[in-house]
């Protein structure tokens, strides 16, 4: 069970990530990603396309936090504390790529929107004609809305190919221990809503500091 995606675990981590004053606590935020990685890996080839990058970026932030803790600091306790500390230490560049926690988190942040949109789209009921769209087309649509414009042409092509191999709805239902759209929809909707809250808080913090387009 510890190696399988669990919606309840994801929700628990996401709720724990909600800090005071609209902040996001980084440790449970990264734990949320651990759970989402299990979900992505269950989707097949699409996981290899994005999950390796996600895993790498999460480990970068964890290493920064560990280094800070070793120095008895708490700069990487939350999104806002990290932004404040890295700006004051001159670690963030608005002109060139740097290995800052802020830049790394921004990449995770963008990927989180993709997953949130995907889960929300799968949670929705049938279209007007009464048909449910395939997870493959919904995942592609979410990717184009959230991530495609940040990726190279080659990466976008690779994504399109990966999405074609996405499992069908029945397989997705099994991932959340549901037997039908009626059972899965509310679960996925709750997950999308919880992700949306964390995403919105992080978005606001980045916006306030003009960091949404860090190179």
TrEMBL record:
GO terms for biological process: negative regulation of interleukin-1 beta production. This is Si:ch73-269m23.5. Residues 25-177 form the Glycolipid transfer protein domain. InterPro entries: GLTP_sf, Glycolipid_transfer_prot_dom. It comes from Scleropages formosus (Asian bonytongue). Belongs to the GLTP family. One of its GO terms (cellular component) is membrane. It comes from the Eukaryota. GO terms for molecular function: ceramide 1-phosphate binding; ceramide 1-phosphate transfer activity.
């Amino acid at each position: 069970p510890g190696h399988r995606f669990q919606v309840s675990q994801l929700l628990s981590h996401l709720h724990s990530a909600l800090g005071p004053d609209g902040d996001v606590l980084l440790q449970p935020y990264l734990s949320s990603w651990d759970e989402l990685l299990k979900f992505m890996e269950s989707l097949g080839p699409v996981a290899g396309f994005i999950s390796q990058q996600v895993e790498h970026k999460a480990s970068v932030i964890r290493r920064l936090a560990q280094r800070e803790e070793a120095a008895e600091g708490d700069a990487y306790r939350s999104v806002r504390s990290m932004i404040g500390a890295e700006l004051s230490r001159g670690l963030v560049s608005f002109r060139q790529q740097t290995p800052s926690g802020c830049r790394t988190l921004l990449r995770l942040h963008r990927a989180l929107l993709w997953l949130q949109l995907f889960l929300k789209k799968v949670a929705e009921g049938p279209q007007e004609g009464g048909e449910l769209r395939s997870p493959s087309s919904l995942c592609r649509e979410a990717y184009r809305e959230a991530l495609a414009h940040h990726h190279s042409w080659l990466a976008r092509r690779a994504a399109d190919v990966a999405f074609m191999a996405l499992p069908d709805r029945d397989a997705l239902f099994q991932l959340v221990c549901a037997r039908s759209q009626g059972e899965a929809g509310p679960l996925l909707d709750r997950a999308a809503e919880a992700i949306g809250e964390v995403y919105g808080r992080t978005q606001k913090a980045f916006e306030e500091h003009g960091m949404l387009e860090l190179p």
